[in-house]
Design brief:
A hairpin with a 2-residue loop joins strand 2 (26-29) and strand 3 (32-37). Helix 3 packs antiparallel against helix 4 (83-92) and helix 4 (83-92) crosses helix 5 (117-134). By secondary structure, this protein is α+β, with helices and mostly antiparallel strands. The protein contains 13 helices and twelve strands. It has helices at 39-47, 50-56, 68-78, 83-92, 117-134, 137-141, 145-149, 162-167, 240-248, 258-288, 295-298, 336-354, 381-393, and strands at 2-14, 26-29, 32-37, 63-65, 113-115, 183-185, 188-190, 197-203, 221-239, 306-312, 362-366, 376-378. The strands form two sheets. Strands 1, 2, 3, 6, 7, 8, 9, 10, 11 and 12 form a ten-stranded mixed β-sheet that branches. A two-stranded antiparallel sheet has the order 4-5.
């Protein structure tokens, strides 16, 4: 089963996702320049959203960090390892995450790793055992991080968190299992041609007038910020079966015992229960969460005008980005959002008919009086999320 989410969202002036020069990200699509928000930015805004955490209620999430040694040291100290020995043991964790086990001088791992609480506990357990055996910081320092990383306790399957199951991870270490992402996220692009604009600003000294006359002339500082205003098409595709498999773990071999097979069936059932909670939470966070870039300056917190959910029986993902290969534009009495909606609906209906695209159900929410043919209209976002929840519960 494939779950596809399509959103149309118009933003007021903003700089939600900027490049290395501070400019809002953009791209060429359909021969014209478009505003763009990277998939990495969208995924992080959803993953770290307080709303997402609140909606999944008590289910652990992962940490994407280089500070594994810091977390390990906390655990070692809590288990009674003295400060000096814990410091040396935690330093060994800086060698995790790279195949050569090379320890890092800055006290962090060489790469950012997406870790579950069980991953961190497993590393801490190995280092706790070695530290307890070594007995002194000097003897602990002689151990190789590469050998520690290869400890049998770190190999094999460990439970992962839903965010790792959704977004996946790749770590160059045998200590942590790679996870293939179950969700694909497109870069959001504007439905229309985009032009960058600049906000020239000044900061005025509140104590202006207290100094010498020549010192008080002009602004305390000046600067400029680049921004744009854009209506974005956003597209997410979730492979439900891959997500459940990621959470449940690998299937047992045919020669596995009945007990092992029964345990896996139970893990799959538990994974489906988690998925039924996490996927609606993901969509709610995608709808209500906006990237944080320059929001203190622009506060561009606009909600989507349309959300389409398609539940496909086959692995045939379909993006409707080509609805906007000819840019939308405001004209006569039709505004930009209205023209974007018209293009989206026409393109969606065309592809569905021409390619006999299957989806059941197809759920449609819109703030305006327009609907995609063959969809079930939902009056509110709560109605749509409830209908999605029913699909996942069946």
């Amino acid at each position: 089963m494939l779950l596809e989410f399509h959103l149309l969202q118009n933003h007021a002036p903003s700089n939600l996702n900027r490049d290395d020069s501070g400019s809002p990200k953009d791209c060429i699509f359909g021969g014209v320049r478009r505003a763009r928000i990277s998939s990495q930015c969208l995924k992080r805004s959803i993953r770290t959203s307080p709303l997402f955490t609140e909606e999944i209620g008590g289910i652990d999430l992962g940490l994407r960090t280089r500070k594994l040694p810091h977390k390990v040291k906390e655990i070692l100290l809590a288990r009674g390892i003295d400060e000096a020995l814990a410091e040396v043991a935690a330093a060994k964790a800086t060698g995790f995450g790279n195949k050569d086990g090379k320890e890092q001088k800055d006290g962090k791992t060489a790469q950012v790793m997406f870790l579950s609480p069980q991953d961190i506990e497993a590393v801490a357990e190995v280092l706790f055992t070695k530290a307890s055996t070594a007995g002194s910081a000097e003897d602990m320092a002689k151990l190789s991080a590469k050998d520690l990383q290869a400890e049998a306790a770190l190999k094999g399957w460990r439970p992962i968190t839903p965010d790792i199951g959704l977004f996946g991870r790749m770590i160059t270490s045998e200590a942590f299992r790679d996870v293939q992402a179950a969700v694909q996220v497109a870069h959001a692009i504007s439905t229309h041609r985009m032009d960058h604009e600049f906000d020239y600003f000044t900061a005025v000294d509140d104590l202006l007038g207290l100094g010498e006359e020549e010192d008080d002339a002009g602004a305390g500082m000046i600067g400029d910020i680049e921004f744009n205003s854009a209506c974005y098409y956003k597209y997410f595709s979730i492979d439900y079966d891959a997500f459940v498999q990621n959470l449940a773990g690998p299937e047992p071999e045919t020669r596995a015992s009945e007990r092992e097979k029964a345990a896996h069936r139970e893990a799959v059932a538990d994974a489906r229960t988690i998925a039924a909670k996490v996927i609606p939470a993901f969509l709610r966070a995608a709808v209500f969460t906006t990237p944080s870039g320059k929001q203190n300056t622009f506060a561009a917190h606009q909600l989507p005008d349309a959300v389409l959910v398609e539940v496909r029986p086959h692995q045939t993902p379909v993006s409707y980005a080509n609805a906007f290969v000819s840019p939308a534009r405001a004209k006569n009495d039709v505004d930009l959002v209205g023209d974007s909606l018209r293009k989206f609906v026409e393109h969606c209906e065309l592809l569905t008919r021409k390619f006999s695209l299957e989806a059941d159900p197809r759920l449609w929410f819109c703030t305006r009086d327009i609907q995609v043919t063959g969809t079930t209209g939902c009056d509110t976002m709560d109605d749509l999320l409830a209908a999605l929840g029913q699909v996942l519960a069946r």
